[in-house]
Sequence to fold (175 residues):
Amino acid sequence: SARIQALYENSPDMITVLDDDGRLIDPNKRLCEATGYDATALGELTVFDLDETLDAEAVKAAWAEMTAGDRRRREGRFRCRDGSEIPVDVHLQRLDLTGDDRFMLIARDVSERLERLRQLRDQKAKIEALHDVAADIEACETPDRVYELVVEAAESILAFDICIADRAAAGSLVP
Fold:
């Protein structure tokens, strides 16, 4: 129907139908835009060309065990026409089409989510490192040693550009 076709073509997700050899049949506009291939070029590829992390024989064996309506999910990486890669979350469903083995592949670009996770891991590591410095500061016996630890932490953990030589040239900055 026209409604289903409109949903398919205007989806923010990358969608295509695969045959049992993994050939991409009828990729949607989003898949073309995201990968840089036109529909004709994608039609000449298999999902194994697009996602080189897949083991074709293992995937085909898993597909053979699926019945109509079965779903699978995995993470992968689509190689774009320009050589770049897109990390994707892929959902695959075996379709119930008379006489043809077909699979609906829906993939979502997860680049932004992975970048947010990386930033959170980096922030967590910095907080843990700062906590360790705070524990070291508690054990300091001189104000100069506190200052040195703070400067080292600012430079190494927070990436501030503080030169200890400036402190030495100016004399002790800690009373």
Q: What stands out?
A: Strands lie at 14-19, 24-25, 71-79, 85-94, 102-109.
